[in-house]
Amino acid sequence: MVPRIEKGRGLSGAVRYVMGQGKGRGNDWQPGMESRVDWISGQNFGFEIKSREDVEAARRVMEFMAQRQSSPTRRCENDVLHLTLSWHPTERPTREQMEEAAREALKALGMEEARAIFVAHNDTDHAHLHIVASRLHPETGRAFPDRRERIRIQEWALDYEIKSGVIRCPAREAIDPRDHEKILEALTARNATFTRRELERLINKSTVSRVEVRQLANDILVRDEVIGLSNTPGGPTVRYTTREVLAHEAEIAQAASQLKRSTAHGMTEQARQHMLDRYAHLDHEQRLAFAHATDSEGLALIAGQAGSGKSATLEAVREAYREAGYRVIGLSLTNSVVNGMKQDGFAEAATIAAEMKRQEAGLRRWTSRTVLIVDEAAMLSSAQMAELTGKAREAQAKLILVGDERQLSSIQRGGMFEALRQEHGAAELRQVRRVADTEQKFAWNRMHEGDFAQALGIFEKQGAIHWTGTQNEARDALIAQYAGDSAREPDRQRFVFAFTNADVNALNQDIRALRRERGELGEDHILQTKDGAQIFALGDRIQFTGNAKTQRARNLGFTNGQAATITAIDGARVRAELDGGKNGKPRVVEFTVGDNAEAGQFNSIRHGYAGTIYKGQGKTLDQTYLYHSEHWRGAASYVALTRHREHTKVFVARETAADINQLAKQMARSDERRAASQFHYERGVERGESRNTAGEHDRAAERRRVRDLFLEPQRPGPDIGTGPERKRDRGLER
Known about the structure:
Elements: E1 2-8, H1 11-19, E2 37-43, H2 52-67, E3 80-86, H3 95-108, E4 116-121, E5 128-134, H4 149-164, H5 180-187, H6 196-204, H7 210-221, E6 226-230, E7 239-242, H8 243-261, H9 269-278, H10 284-293, E8 299-304, H11 310-323, E9 327-332, H12 335-343, E10 349-351, H13 352-361, E11 370-374, H14 382-395, E12 398-403, H15 416-424, E13 427-429, H16 438-448, H17 452-461, E14 465-468, H18 471-488, E15 494-498, H19 501-518, E16 525-529, E17 532-536, E18 541-544, H20 551-556, E19 563-570, E20 573-578, E21 587-592, E22 605-607, E23 610-612, E24 621-627, H21 634-640, E25 644-653, H22 660-668, E26 680-681, H23 699-710
Parallel strand pairs: 8-12, 8-13, 9-10, 9-11, 11-12, 14-25, 15-23, 15-24, 24-25
Antiparallel strand pairs: 1-3, 2-4, 3-5, 4-5, 6-7, 6-26, 16-17, 18-19, 18-22, 19-20, 20-21
């Protein structure tokens, strides 16, 4: 639960905003237009709020009171409270639950008797509710007290989450501004570094005075455990971190270094050459990556751009180690990538979470004859990377990390894949192989470097960008293009990507309506999914939106992101063919749609014609259709624009991006996700926004100093470092 409070002057403006289409255009809704308003309610008016006419009547009542305040000398200038309640994307509150939350929130502010309008919107991937309330008591005409309202609303939100059983906003636990340790812990939960502005924004949730916010920020930044960071030795402080974060990253770095020093995982040159002869289609770049990954060292990294042939390279690496007598295990963060690894030939593959549980339970033991190949490794959090490198070091196993720091990263604190790449080097795969078009290959490379302007220029020249006036028109244009393409080439594998779940749901309904109109679907059946009652039919494309509870069911394919086609429905019983079967043969599953997981039921399904970009990472499709919105940023844009083999179409509304230059700027936006150890810093304390004096040491020396500062020397495990002398791979970037 994330509450947001705004106070201001002008009830009518606030009402127009929540009833309008947003983006600061006021009440631009007109009869016949699709509206972002899902439902309307309210309290303390003496009549129900069910329609726009009711809202207008309520607005007049509140405006009348504001103009006739009881105190002629001490008027309440900020006469409106705009409170927004946002639920976590995984939560699906009912209307009754949202209305109850609104009333409880107002009660926590001492405004349970206030007149208020409740307006729920459907334009984001999470449930959220707008509350526009008059700050004037309907009986006395005097203003409700507003002392400590920010603190009180956060306290209420924390209590709301405690009662629900899940605290989804860890930052709220830092609600006491005097608890500096919790504030720092909250700041570094999802990112290794932070700015002064981010610190002040967090403190501001619990305080009122700007002077107090600045003073508290100063007090925190001069603490001994806060370290200032700069981009260059001796440069100005640009971000901050904590000693705890640096120590955690140093542990990962030390484990990785010990793996790197191990030289017990080699194979004969004859065996490597035999494998390269078998995979003669690998080009020079892929052969270098193969040589690097099959060297004797216990750690290897492959940094591969989107569509650069990582899967083909990993197949050769996997088979080389397997034939040499090693046990090869494929690992990744998500089930969808793990399923892809199984389809590519991995006999053993699992999510990192599942594999760590097996390790703890003693169900699978790693040894020096184990090779771990981790795909999409840049998505790992620091905690996951620490556990993985630590256990690999203990077992003396070989660890091969494969990823791309430019694609979507960990939701939690991460960035260690790139830090390890800079420290130890990596085999680089830059040549784009997924698409045949030379210009698009170049565009993909430019996007990887952050140059979206040149890349989009190529897409524009090829007619891949479709411009419309509004977002609704962009969606209509996408559906029309999809309709034409699917009619001409029905056998192509195509998919629609959008950023928010709200957009995904709307696109799914539009495409399903198109298929219904064409007569491509069977009789409709109502199924009770975890998101409520939905209609499905024979022939529908579906997507699983969660993982089954049992490992057996997950092994059958009941995993988050798995796509399928319904082949039969009988009541709540569904039979479906899963995408991605081996040798082109689809896997068939049957299940009962319901919430009794113990009885084998499964209800995490939705229509599967469109999906979020996040779930698209790691996928390859023939044709893609991209619904652009204001939420797109660098990593998401790069992933979305590199999923296709044949072509992609991007649909852009000029109300969101006026021209290609603005579109490029939007797509190039990036969040700072680097590990703290990738910056320069000084030992000691940064004071305010002063400059640091890290000296003229290079990055490698800085990292060595971090390890010396935060970690006691650790002896290598038995046999670590033994084996034939390592030979440096020529042509690899270090």
